[in-house]
Specification:
The protein has one domain: Ribonuclease Inhibitor (Leucine-rich repeat, LRR (right-handed beta-alpha superhelix), Alpha-Beta Horseshoe). The protein has 2 helices and 11 strands. Strands 1-2-3-4-5-6-7-8-9-10-11 form an 11-stranded parallel sheet. Helix 2 links the parallel strand 10 and strand 11.
């Protein structure tokens, strides 16, 4: 899922209003607190960008950037940072200085690891896109402070697992883990009780943990392209499930209780 800038700004305004902050007028790329440099084939960021310390939205989508300068730390008021579709191999340690950041899109780059300071971005609440990079592992503590995060996309990274700190994502509503080489889903997945949508497409899963039944708010579950040979019994417990997609698995039997899901209005795709 890719949110256009207009939707991101709208979501940001709603978040600010929920926190009791004064309602701001609608932001546009021409205003002082928003800078849109997307799609300009930039190999470097203009130096005067770092002088605008009141900047709240910086859009660098689809350029040719190979690095993000340390000057990013000067943008202490930044709420939205979009650096997707560049050629970044890393994010700078100075990123941790952005203590007000609510949304970060660093997808579609070549990032191999996150900086140690990444865990300081505890204000990120609306969207965190890290998909389609080259992340092989995440530090176990990376998400410990991300207790307000609602959307996380780690898809298309050779991770093969999740850091233990992911159990702290108690407000997460959507989690996308497509094609990360996942063979076992950790039991702490049940701690993410606010999940509404979970995408596990194109992994190596053959079973789900018993704790999965704790995902009582889950409505959409994508298990396509895994190694299931039977429909996991634990899915029977998910009373709010509206769509279950198990296509592209080698299912050898269809349990009778699938009719119960259909009767509750769940669309089952096998």
């Amino acid at each position: 899922m890719r949110c256009p800038l207009s939707l991101i700004l709208s979501s940001l305004r709603k978040s600010q209003n929920r926190l009791g902050r004064p309602r701001r007028k609608k932001m546009s790329p021409g205003e002082r607190d928003t800078l849109d440099l997307s799609g300009r084939h930039l190999a470097s960021i203009p130096r005067d960008t770092w002088r605008n310390t009141s900047l709240r939205v910086l859009n660098l989508f689809r350029n040719e950037l190979r690095n993000l300068p340390a000057g990013i730390a000067q943008l202490r008021e930044l709420r939205v940072l979009i650096v997707a579709n560049n050629q970044l191999r890393a994010l700078p340690e100075e990123l941790g200085a952005l203590r007000h950041l609510k949304m970060l899109d660093a997808g579609h780059n070549r990032i191999t690891a996150l900086p140690e300071s990444f865990g300081k971005l505890s204000s990120i609440s609306d969207y965190l896109y890290l998909h389609d990079n080259r992340l092989r592992s995440l530090s176990d503590s990376v998400f410990e402070s991300f207790v307000h995060l609602r959307y996380l996309n780690l898809s298309e990274n050779p991770l093969r697992g999740l850091p233990t700190s992911a159990h702290a994502l108690v407000k997460l509503e959507e989690l996308r883990l497509e094609n990360i080489g996942l063979e076992i889903l950790p039991t702490f997945i049940g701690d993410l009780a606010a999940l509404d949508e979970l995408t596990l497409r194109n992994n190596r899963l053959a079973s789900l943990p018993y704790s999965f039944q704790k995902l009582r708010k889950l409505r959409h579950l994508d298990l396509r392209g895994n190694r299931f040979t039977r429909v996991p019994d634990v899915l029977r417990k998910l009373r709010k499930l509206q769509k279950l997609d198990l296509r592209w698995n080698d299912l050898r039997a269809r349990p009778a209780w699938l009719k119960e899901l259909n009767a509750r209005g769940c669309r089952v795709l096998l």
